[in-house]
Amino acid sequence: MGARERPSLWRWSLVAVTWQLSLWVGWGLVLAALVLYLRADDHDYGYQLTMVAALVIFGELRPVVASDYAQDGVPMSTAFVFAALYMWGFVPAILLQAVAVLLSEMMQRKDIWKLVFNVGQYVLSVTAAWGVMWLAGVRPTLENPTSELFLRDVVWMALSWIVCHLVNLGMVAGLAGSAGQTWWESFSEDFWYYTFSTLSVLAVSPFIVAMLLVKWTLLPLLLLPLVAVYKTAAISRRRERQALHDALTDLPNRVLLQQRVTAALDEVRRDGSGLAFFLLDLDRFKEVNDTLGHPAGDALLEVVARRLIGAVRPGDTVARLGGDEFAVLLPDIEHPNDAIEVAGRIKTALAEPFRLEGVTMDVDVSIGIALCPQHGEDVEVLMRRADVAMYVAKDEQTGIEVYDAARDPNSPARLGTVTALREALDLGHLALHYQPKVALDDGTVVGVEALVRWEHPVRGLVPPDEFVPLAERTGLVHRLTAFVLREALDQVSEWWAIGVQVPVAVNVSMRDLQETDLAGLVAAELDAHGLPPSALVLEVTESVLAQDPGRAVATLRELADLGVSSSLDDFGTGYSSLLLLERLPVAEIKVDRSFVRRLDEADGDPAMVRSIVGFAHGLGLSVVAEGVESSSAWKLLREMGCDVAQGYRVARPMPTAQATQWLVERVVRGPAERTGLRVVGGDDAGPR
Ligand code: C2E
Ligand code: MG
Ligand code: MG
């Protein structure tokens, strides 16, 4: 709650005065009315008054509530209280009003002091209305009630409604000082809403008076339209609720969340505190839906919703944004650690296994946190930043992340690199290095892989790991791939011209396979360079392929139809199923270098690589070992029957001139005896 300003002294005195007024004056008036009533002589209007009293009570039981946020609404009973005021004056009106408020407050189980205050408050406002009437010279009593109604009476009546309404608002606002709001803030808040609904209820009172004067027995008929109004209000309230809540979990939906965040942000701006906004995404929800079906998925979401509500405080908002995405709004959070603590509670609440249809399952959650004012001061920015944090949490499997500009692909710091990368592409600051692939059995050069480098004017040679992922996130990767493809084919045509006829392998990203006509681009480039499809191999990383094979597989097939073969890179890191592997139109897999490295470790177990080689061969695929650094690994791999090796043991990735020299030595004039490499060249050369 921290930095909230304390109400000033005069505001406290305002609260005190308002409070004393309602307590002593308000209740004093009730008491006076009671005494006067008891002392009044019997009168002729007993039945009418009883009827009106009954309708007041009925009106309290059925308050007209038009909207969710105006919880107190305007009770219909007020119209009858005013009718009693106009008919019989002060005494019955005050008593009826007191009874009505007591009844309603007790039904809502309000705090006793609130009840005391509210009775006083309404009694005072009715008294004010009576004052207007008295000044207008209209002074009916129980013994001497009003007997006629004229059109001109509407003038003072309207005036009495306005005065009553203003006194009411003024007293509520007077007490608002204790909630830290200023008197004016509270007074003006929802001013028009309350004014409109109050006046429309009070405007019914002259009709009631007219009926009392003409045919009071018809009065209950008035209930019909009133009940209809009540019903309509209830329906519209339900509709409003539906429009703002999620049907499955009954949590606030995106629209309501946005309203709440906006309101909370206003508050932060006003009192200089802070707030936290979380985005949550269930980690294995799709699995539940796929394996147990949608009803089970729905049931899971409901349980998750309940656990989320249980993990936060009453004033916080938990919302469902759709699918398995939830959001939490915590007002009054200033320190990141407080937010992390709540996120930790949420994680613990969801960590407990779920039992659904007799199956116990674990569902993990990734939470992204954005704070106001640290990370943004408007709804969209906060949501976007929480989203970025959530993806980091998911990617790095940390579970909870607070937004960090350094890891945001859209942040200005990052945009510096994106812009710089775009410039590098324009200015030709990117270069390709080439690393050979050789056959394990006889050392034949069977290809080269093109690996991109950024020749940064300040940072020097930047490795691809530092900018390719960025290019992938921003869509710049299409330009990057087109550049690498053209550059690599330029180089290969040169090599082929001097007799080094090996294919070049180009790495492509998932987005190339999904979003562009890669096959079309490849065909055009091969054509432009006058090269056969066998001059090119495309490498696709296994992990990304396993995520979403659909469209990617189709592209790979188009490429295969062209005659361009593909290779599954970093194999073993992506958990692709054997089924997927069988379906994939690839000719080669590249065993990830983490497996190859383990061959060199003292307790290294070669069984993994051996079995990969075994089943790849079973599927008719050729196997490349990546990252071969030692002679012992080389030997082991050869024994296992692995086909090709790539790694520092053979050669590091080399800039063009050096790669050309290396290739020419081994392939064209290579002293095969010395290096153990076979000369490849002439017409029989080319890819395997
Ligand atoms: P990759 O395709 O698996 O490339 C092999 C990586 O292993 C290269 O890293 C290479 O330098 C390194 N390497 C080769 N032999 C050895 C070895 O014996 N020991 C060790 N420790 N490492 C070795 P590099 O060049 O840093 O490239 C990293 C990754 O960046 C590549 O992995 C590839 O996925 C990506 N990449 C490189 N160029 C491109 C490109 O033009 N386009 C795209 N989309 N991605 C690229
Ligand atoms: Mg590669
Ligand atoms: Mg690799």
Description:
The structure is a single chain. The chain has 688 residues and is α/β, with parallel strands linked by helices. It has three domains: 13-244, no CATH class; 254-407, 2-Layer Sandwich (Alpha-Beta Plaits), CATH 3.30.70.270; 412-669, Alpha-Beta Barrel (TIM Barrel), CATH 3.20.20. The chain is built from 28 helices and 17 strands. The strands form three sheets. It has an eight-stranded mixed β-barrel with strand order 8-9-11-12-13-14-15-16, surrounded by five helices. Strands 2-3-1-6-7 form a five-stranded mixed β-sheet, with helices on both faces. The radius of gyration is 40 Å and the shape is elongated. It starts with 8 loop residues before the first helix and ends in a 13-residue tail after the last helix. The relative contact order is 0.06. One magnesium ion binds at residues 449, 507, 539, 569.
Kindly list the characteristics that best describe this protein:
56% helix; 3 domains; TIM Barrel; disordered C terminus; 8-stranded mixed β-barrel; binds ligand C2E; 28 helices; binds magnesium ion; 688 residues; alpha/beta; disordered N terminus; Alpha-Beta Plaits; elongated; 5-stranded mixed beta sheet
**Main beta sheet, described?**
8 strands, mixed, barrel
CATH-level-2 architecture of the largest domain: Alpha-Beta Barrel
Mean pLDDT: 85
How many domains? The number is 3
Judged by helices, strands and strand pairing, the structural class is alpha/beta
CATH topology of the largest domain: TIM Barrel
Instruction: Kindly provide the name of the CATH class of the largest domain.
Output: Alpha Beta
Cα gyration radius (Å)? 40 Å
Distance linking N and C termini:
71 Å
Shape: elongated
| DSSP summary: helix tally | 28
Q: Please indicate the percent range of residues in DSSP E strands (runs of 2 or more).
A: 5-15%
